[in-house]
Specification:
Mean pLDDT: 85
Strand order of the largest sheet: 1-3-2
Largest sheet: 3 strands, antiparallel
Radius of gyration: 14 Å
Number of helices: 1
Shape: elongated
Helix content: 10-25%
Distance between the termini: 12 Å
Number of strands: 3
Order of helices and strands: EHEE
């Protein structure tokens, strides 16, 4: 299943592994259950409140279905 995840903050020199780790923390699953990250949108956040400039990414990742997190606000998935 492909998911689009927005507002992933990463340093300027980021790797795919870091993107997968941050995306997994954002949706509440294991990083190993995500694969094939594709950056759909990348913007630069250079505001003074940050110690250094960062990229803010929107990415699409592939999620393996058994690893899908169950939360109260999502309906159950019927396969």
């Amino acid at each position: 299943m492909r998911l689009r995840i927005q507002q992933i903050n990463v340093p300027l020199a980021y790797t795919d592994a870091l993107v997968l780790f941050r995306a997994s923390r954002k949706i509440g699953c294991e990083a190993s259950s995500l694969s094939e990250p594709v950056v759909v949108r990348r913007s630069l956040d250079a505001r003074a409140r940050n110690a250094e400039p960062m990229h803010v990414l929107t990415v699409e990742v592939t999620l393996s279905l058994p690893a899908l997190p169950r939360t109260a606000h999502l309906p159950p998935i019927k396969i």
